[in-house]
Structures are given as C-alpha cells and as structure tokens.
Amino acid sequence: MQIIGNAHVKRALEIAEKGNHSILIIGNLTNVLQDGQPWPDDAWFSQPCPCGNFTAPKLSCSCLLEDIQRHRSAFPSCKITIELVRPTFNELIQEKIIPKNIDDTVKRLLETAYDKLFFTVQDIAHVLAVAYTIMAMDDGRNLEAQHIAEAIQYKALLKK
Ligand SMILES: [Zn+2]
C-alpha cells in the first residue's frame, strides 16, 4: 500500500512492523493506494463511524453519536491504534500522485474533483490513468484539461 500524507500513520506502521505489534488503522482506505506492498501481518482496519465520514475533513457524517459509540466499541484491541486522515490536495502533489508539471487548468479540475466532489485518492489515481490513455489516443504529449474532464466524467457518476 502507499499511504499519502499521514506521516503519523507511516510512523506507527513502522513501529508495528519492527516490533510485530498489532495495529488498528481507523479511517477510509480509499485514501490509500494499493500498490502490491503488503500491510503488516497483524494490521486491522475500521471505518471511523458507520458511514465512514466522521473524521474526513469537509465530508459530512450522518451517523448518530450512539451509533458511532456502538461502532467503536466493536473495535479490536490492538497495541497501536492510529487514525488515517484524508490527505490534502497539496499532499497528492507532494507525493507525486498528481504530477508537479501539469498545467494549471488540469490541476484546478483535479482539485475541484478532490475538494468539491469528494473524489478519493484512488478516484484521482484512476482519473489520471484514464486521462493518460485518452491523451495517448489523441496522440497528445501533454495532459490537457479535456483529457481530465472526460476522465472525471467516468468517475463522477458514482459521486451523485
Ligand atoms: Zn458517519
């Protein structure tokens, strides 16, 4: 897996791996990229609340407090518990999920998808992959707004 941002989670995972400690990661795993690298053996995962949006910045959680408490009381008891938060758009650029050298219009489109349409990190990675295919089909050399806009369309359906 590739964790974006979340330096505290990376650190906790290192400790868990080093000492073979159980670790519970609370958060939305759509903000982690699956790249074939395995999680530690004794890693557990849970959503922060039944709907999954409780700690995600800018997303709204529709859960009742009692439902959140019931949900959390079922968490396994691990030696390490850590919360995975939604990375900022800038962290996606810093960690090269979004190329640094793309033009501003392309960047703004992706930023809107991420911050306003609440695309996940995985969604953004998918949009870019599809956009590069569209670019190649157009014999283009640079990613243009139209490539991204079309690729966003293929994801946006799920966001309504
Ligand atoms: Zn919720």
Q: What compounds sit in this structure? A: zinc ion
Largest sheet: 3 strands, parallel
Element order: H for helix, E for strand: EHEEEHEHHHH
Helical content class = 40-55%
The DSSP helix count reads 6
Structure overview:
This protein is mainly alpha-helical. The protein has 2 domains: 2-83, no CATH class; 89-159. The chain has helices at residues 7-19, 65-73, 89-94, 104-115, 121-137, 145-156, and strands at residues 2-3, 23-26, 32-33, 43-46, 80-83. Helix 4 packs parallel to helix 6 and helix 5 (121-137) packs across helix 6 (145-156). The structure holds zinc ion (ZN). Zinc ion (ZN) binds at residues 49-51, 53-54, 61-63.
Topology overview:
Elements: E1 2-3, H1 7-19, E2 23-26, E3 32-33, E4 43-46, H2 65-73, E5 80-83, H3 89-94, H4 104-115, H5 121-137, H6 145-156
Parallel strand pairs: 2-4, 2-5
Antiparallel strand pairs: 1-3
Helix pairs in contact: 4-6, 5-6
Residues 49-51, 53-54, 61-63 line the site of zinc ion.
In short, what is this structure?
By secondary structure, the chain is mainly alpha-helical. It is built from 6 helices and 5 strands; from the N terminus they run E-H-E-E-E-H-E-H-H-H-H. The model has no long low-confidence stretch (mean pLDDT about 90).
Please name the defining characteristics of this protein:
160 residues, mainly alpha, three-stranded parallel β-sheet, 6 helices, globular
